[in-house]
Amino acid sequence: MKYQSQAVAKLYFIAAMGLFVGQILFGTILGLQYVIGDFLFPEIPFNIARMVHTNLLIIWLLFGFMGAAYYMVPEEAERELHSPLLAKITFWVFLAASVLTILGYLGLDYSKLAELTGNKYFPTMGREFLEQPTITKIGIVVVILAFLYNIGLTILSGRKTAINLILLTGLVGLAVFFLFSFYNPDNIAKDKYFWWFVVHLWVEGVWELILGALLAFVLIKTTGVDREVIEKWLYIIVAMALITGLIGTGHHFYWIGAPEYWLWWGSIFSALEPIPFFMMTLFAFNMVNKRRLDHPNKAAVLWALGTSVMAFLGAGVWGFLHTLAPINYYTHGTQITAAHGHMAFYGAYVMVVLSIISYSVPIMNGYKAKSNKGQVIEMWSFWLMTVSMVFITLFLTGAGILQVYLQRYSDAPLPFMVVQDKIVIFYWLREMAGIFFLIGLILFVISFFVKPDEAEKITA
Ligand code: HEM
Ligand code: HEM
Ligand SMILES: [Fe+2]
Known about the structure:
mainly alpha, 75% helix, globular, binds protoporphyrin IX containing FE
């Protein structure tokens, strides 16, 4: 570790991992409820478990992004963090708000939670991914502002690298677009617009900047390739992400009562969205091929390469599959959507956070890399999680194709629940893949507790 204050990242990464385990536990509960409808009812109904699963995902990714920023920014800026104390305070505030909110979901009726938190005075609750009570949302804004202030000052008063500036732009964008979650129009079509201004413009807009910056950082550190080369790639990737992703939002406006021209704008621009993801794949493999040093942390390189491939598959290929209006007409809101949602979130954002954790945590512990044994366990976790996610995606895609055919395409379309019963085998298989995913995740955590190899100790 070059700067002492980078160590604050570790807190964030520990919280991220804890919440990730929670997310996947709830994923396996959900998967079981798909096949055994009454499982854990009425204690944990499906709608609540789903909300916990998706909210935990978003929260732990935010912990991951913040931890990544606290680790990377000082090193890139070549100075200590502006205020390590503030970073610690915001950590505890964010953790307390997150845990209380999740406990609120689990312990109270959602309507009761809304009443207790004064939702009627300032209604923002009830939309997928953005179910948090208004006071939690305000808490998130305060935390993000303090965080941006902290890393912003560090960046602006230090060495300004492309990685830091792109990271900062992405994080500011994340904060700005979150503000749309406070606007909750009564008109359902308008409501959808603003909901997508958060959800789509995050994952297919500003988060791609964060993704690019994190990936570039891990690649620079593990390959020793010149900054100039990496920065050129980054600029083009970022430009392509914004050019395609902003207007690409139109692929969510097909069926919500928006003007018809969105069928064209949405289809054309979102069809180009795979380009920046494909460039990230080329970028990562190019850098590793041109590497000037053999970094002892092979697992981190594997995660970085894996991110670039899986993000392209999940977002690029599985996104393209259903993004053209004439196809989306049939696939909208089916298991095809869920297949894509899982692989894209995992491939892009989960994996990039695991990459930076894999690279930085051993260093924060005083070692260049884990011991050989630690890395072998970690690589097992990589393959278990990644292959399980490929299977989850394939099973859901199978379910989705049949669902579309039986429910929406055949000459004698069947009702929703009748179709669900016919495709239950896919849901059993998905659940099995989910259990393997959970095992992979536990191995990832375990790999950090394996005794380090003293030869890798950082001495300088
Ligand atoms: C890492 C980036 C991405 C992530 C994390 C992501 C995630 C998601 C999620 C979770 C949904 C479901 C939203 C909901 O209705 O609840 C969704 C929907 C959708 N995504 Fe993505 N996505 C990404 C990139 C892309 C790309 C690049 C494309 C196009 C090439 C795309 C095309 C779509 C389409 C068309 C839908 C709507 C599906 C429907 O009509 O039901 N996505 N995405
Ligand atoms: C890192 C891994 C995972 C990520 C990133 C993830 C992400 C997501 C997302 C974004 C959604 C909302 C999807 C949508 O609206 O289209 C979702 C829903 C869901 N997830 Fe996951 N998930 C993960 C792991 C799992 C696992 C391991 C299981 C189960 C075995 C699982 C089961 C489910 C189920 C059953 C739903 C509800 C789908 C529905 O409403 O029909 N997830 N997950
Ligand atoms: Fe989108």
